[in-house]
């Protein structure tokens, strides 16, 4: 299993995806580097210089969005920043998951620590203190259009720093923010020029969801290869199509990796060895869902690699508007537009749906007496009396259908806002929200395939490959083998949890070595 980092340092450089996951999911402690605090203080001096200047500067001495033409006198600027945060904390709908909010907060802190946003050091320090205390602002599903950043979700987080709004604590209590801050000795912020804007203007929510999805999908990619290898064995298919030299004829790296994994897991199978002669005489070729598994899983992997590249670039970014440039000028820009991240999120939703789709098709073959090569109908113990895994495939099919709907891209939509000042938006937050449902669905579909393939392999009553045996043993530690019909839903959940936790992958890699 992957080692979880318990302490990360946030500085002027980029965070890694693993660090984001460590803070978001595992409550890793955050420390701001001295160099970052120095950079923050240096650029803050420039903001304070401009605050005294009669020339309007966006975000410092003006209103926001379509109201940017109004010059705000100094005596009203504290109210300006406070009003910005309060008015933009306008989310609605279900509460967003804790790990997403923590990822969002860490990424906003990371941008503050670049020294390009112009906040005071105390703003970054307070953000880190809230993260380390396990205080999570209540953020709602709806409110971000993915341009000018994830405004509403970030505003709800900023509101908590002011001691307003609601939060949840590390032990699950829902409290007024002021109470939670007081419990941990954290002084609420009083915002000054530019700081409210710096706290809400970034792609942090969609990027956080992208980082979490990448971490999950990279594990699921290898687990999908394990599932495919198990199904090849269960169907008494052939490994010849996965030979390395055949993959080299079409040199997509993801395809080669997937094929190598399938070979590694299924090599040495007595089931496949006994079927070799029969296969050559009667079957000739496996169906596409089996034979083309590396091509589909490989395309998934290559898309995932592109998404990681986008995430790494975004993690190295300072997303705010305006920014304090290296030469000291404070200038507007368009880096808050979420298009690059939104596209990556949508790409992943598409390939996630297709990887689930091919998994469901393999499962269906295992259950069809006309195509399963000698297995009982629906893998039932006594077909007719028992239904076996008939309805497990229905569950898969329902999920796959939902994943296809979720694959419709959010990023092709745009709704103008702010009196047409913000007339093209990314909808990247929406892309992230639906991708999270897609990731969950893929894990469930693969879990059903693993459960079904394991039952089919056991019914062959021959020794499987060492890699497959490791997968079977891991599953059988939670779920009984073939027999009369039982309450099936808990067994599906056990298989899904085994797969999505990484425990199945760990068990197989313990026998065959690290999968690609």
TrEMBL record:
Which reactions fall under this protein's catalytic activity?
Answer: L-histidine = trans-urocanate + NH4(+)
Which InterPro entries does this entry report, sorted A to Z?
Answer: Aromatic_Lyase, Fumarase/histidase_N, HutH, L-Aspartase-like, Phe/His_NH3-lyase_AS
Q: Where is the signal peptide?
A: none
Query: Which Gene Ontology BP annotations are present?
Result: L-histidine catabolic process to glutamate and formamide; L-histidine catabolic process to glutamate and formate
Q: In which pathway does it act?
A: Amino-acid degradation; L-histidine degradation into L-glutamate; N-formimidoyl-L-glutamate from L-histidine: step 1/3
| Compartments where located | Cytoplasm
Instruction: Give a Pfam family name.
Output: Lyase_aromatic
Q: Which GO terms describe its cellular component?
A: cytoplasm
GO molecular function annotations of the record = histidine ammonia-lyase activity
Documented EC number(s): 4.3.1.3
Q: Which NCBIfam families does this entry report, sorted A to Z?
A: hutH, PRK09367.1
Report what the protein is called.
Histidine ammonia-lyase
Give the organism the record lists: Corynebacterium humireducens NBRC 106098 = DSM 45392
From which lineage does this chain's organism come?
A: Bacteria, Bacillati, Actinomycetota, Actinomycetes, Mycobacteriales
